[in-house]
Amino acid sequence: MPEESRKPVLYSAVQPSGTLTIGNYIGALRNFKLLEQDYDCLFCMADLHALTVRQEPAALRRRTAELAALYIACGLDPKKNIIYAQSHVPMHAELAWILNCFTYMGELSRMTQFKDKAAKHADNINAGLFTYPVLMAADILLYQTDVVPVGADQKQHLEICRDIANRFNSIYGDVFRIPEPYISKSAAARIMSLNDPSSKMSKSGEPDSFISVMDTPDDIRRKLRRAVTDSDGEIRVDAENKPGVTNLITICAAMSNRTPEQVCQDLAGQGYGALKDAAAEAVIATLAPIQAEHKRIMADKAYIADVLKDGAERASAIAFKTLRKVYKKVGLYQG
Ligand code: TYM
Fold first, then answer.
1. What is the mean pLDDT of residues 133-140?
2. CA angle in degrees (0–180, nearest 5) for 22-26-30
3. How far, rounded to the nearest angstrom, does the alpha carbon of residue 40 sit from its chain's CA centroid?
4. Residue 203 annotated to the active site
5. Which of 7, 48, 272, 332 has its CA 20 to 30 A from that of 36?
6. Under a CB-based contact definition with an 8 Å cutoff, are residues 191 and 158 in contact?
7. Residues 67, 17: Cα–Cα separation, whole Å
8. What is the dihedral of CA 32, 33, 36, 41, to 10 degrees?
9. The pTM is what?
10. Residue 178: which residues within 8 A CB-CB, separation 6 or more?
11. Nearest protein CA to atom 1 of ligand 1, as residue
12. Are the C-beta atoms of residues 209 and 193 closer than 8 Å to each other?
């Protein structure tokens, strides 16, 4: 990225910790492609973050390659963008250590994701889970990032990242660019579980509570037909009183490039069966070309390895500059 032709920098990451859901797709991945041409982009597989929960080693390796293939299958060109694995760029862990020394226990204790995950994995509340947002801040700050497209659940992590960066800058001068979150204003920023629309759709949820981006058309139809609705019978947006129906409208709208209002208009007078069918067909039509492309890319392991090697080299060159500056500022002897 030559300095003079520098576009603003976009950074985002996804954990390769399970099958990706349409929540990940609608809340994050889909926006990557929409924003791509206006930014210099880095898309990361956050494999170090995934270790905060026990992983089966072979599965983690496979999912990391699958996620790289998915980024590319979603239309992200690895020549134009930097696609890489977090663990291939050691500066992430190095900067995270420094930032740990500028982050307070109190602010980390307030993170809702930590509280949720600690409750879910009560037998493994490790220090990595607690300092997870610091590593995430390091990811973002290493690349002098301007914008971070994420789902609504990551808002708090973006806020702490900005707080850490501002704190560091106030002591040492302008070392880090302060990143802005890019979170869709609509309900699409938080896709809810199909069988419990009061909680977010998550890859660690019950099998029928989420649609994986790799699900077959039959699975997609079956899961959506079983989705929780209500007894009111009217197709309209009302997140508070009709969370299940609103979620189905949001999914249908996002996957057919319509607004939720258009979906309601198009289905006016029809029942929830029609809404579920329309949502299923929209999801299937969106995912089919991505799945086909994903399969094609996954068949070429050497290509994926090349993409990741090239991505890590390009990412390292940028990360190294920021880390050197930080080391110098905090007083680490540089020779
Ligand atoms: P992760 O892997 O949990 O999720 C990846 C992205 O998907 C979004 N998302 C959703 N959006 C809408 N509805 C949902 N139900 C839903 N579920 C997930 C997430 O908000 C996220 O954007 N900590 C991050 C990974 C990360 C990161 C970073 C992100 C590590 N370093 C640096 C940005 C910048 C995470 O766990 O995402």
1. 98
2. 115
3. 18
4. yes
5. 48
6. no
7. 10
8. 40
9. 0.96
10. 162, 165, 166, 169
11. 14
12. yes
